[in-house]
Amino acid sequence: MPEPSPDSFSREAAEAVDLVVSPRLLLPVAPRNEALEGMSVAVGGGAIVELGSRHEVLARNPGARHLELGNQALMPGLVNAHGHLAMALLRGLGESESLDDWLNNTIWPLEARWMDEDFVRDGTRLAVAEMVATGTTTASDMYYFPETAALACRGAGFRLQATFPLIEIPNAYSADFDECLSKGLALHDRFRGDDLVTTCFGPHSAYTVDPARLRRVAVLADEIDADVHIHLHETEDEVAGALRSQGGTWIRVLDEVGLLTERLQAVHMTAVSDAEIDLVSERGVRIVHCPHSNMKLASGICPVTKFLASGATVGLGTDGAASNNALDMFAEARLAALLAKSANADPTVLPAADIIAMATLGGARTIGLGDRIGSIEVGKRADLVAIDLDHPTMQPVNDPHAALVHADAGARVTHTFIDGQCVYENGAWNTLDIDEVLARAGAWRAKLNG
């Protein structure tokens, strides 16, 4: 494995260093997506201050705490670019149902009865506990009571894109679209400039929000400089419904209302033509691929290799634990790689290094945070994950990227740092009362199954 050239990395000398981390292998993802030996990372003020040879970094920072990681890999935290975090409480309900049955007969009735701020707070904390223990440091959350979710994440030191819901159907959170919008804009104002929480418009889908209101979203997104996150072309049936009701696809509808732009984060995108792939890529639309959920619900397969070939930015998402059962982004990365190889009948597509990049920097760019997180580079926030390589499931490490993607990396996470704070360490959650989190999950299980 290569060692860096002396001028590969630099230092922001003005920032005091309080921590130096020295792993066996460093996988920075950018500017070079390769495994490096003999490296240390210096952290100060929640940011990456310096990368360099271990000897030099330690010599320049004698007063900093030194974390020696031994036979471990250090990489950027994974980015879960789409989820419904509080739905962790619905894990395992409606198993083996079709998407329509799952939504109409299981999920929506349960939400109508039980969903409130307590549900969102408890479910979000459960999701965060799972994610930090499996290497995820940032997530995009599209769910009701987004302020409650944002506060729960910030309290746990977790980075969040709070995607506030925009939906016309009355629910426990809002009576109509206008109330959703009013609450969402207030959320945006509250968290403007927050270190950990960013906000985003979240129309559920083109088929649940009227085109006139989608046009309004496009205008407002430009006015307040915010992204738009939407379920789009999730199934063939969805597209067929658009053809019947609109005389064209939902992609065409979004184009007509001004939403098919670089602000758009399009989730799922399984039912798309080659022409649509070229169009959305040309417009700068960012794609979120959710392979596990799509396979479990038989929704279709996102043509990831075609999107990448067309120049699109692609990130990975777990979707909610209700349709995935897990929020392990290493497992999602593995499935994305295998699905692409199988769907293309080509084992050479999406090599492990590319999948690691998609799960980190790709996800960060997809949710508009590529300048802050997603790679271990000087000046970026110190969102870092350490994985124990000294385990039979990981050895021998002939190819570090392959070991992380195709072995059992999510179960081997030892340390998770977000903004320089160690939120998870060797089975201990430093920012969550895990006993309370699990007790609340158990109480909800009793209610939901009562």
Tally of individual helices: 16
Using the CA coordinates, give the radius of gyration: 21 Å
Give the N-terminus to C-terminus distance in angstroms: 55 Å
Q: Which class of secondary structure composition applies to the elements? A: alpha/beta
Overall mean pLDDT: 95
**Count of beta strands:** 19
- State the helicity in percent bands: 25-40%
Low-confidence runs of at least 5 consecutive residues: 3-8
User: β content, as a range?
Assistant: 15-25%
Widest beta sheet: strand line-up = 3-2-7-16-17-18-19
Q: Summarize the main sheet.
A: 7 strands, mixed
* Shape field: globular
Question: Would you give an account of this structure?
Answer:
The chain has 450 residues and is of the alpha/beta class. Helix content is 39%, strand content 21%. A 7-stranded mixed sheet has the order 3-2-7-16-17-18-19, with helices on one face. Strands 5-4-1-6 form a 4-stranded mixed sheet.
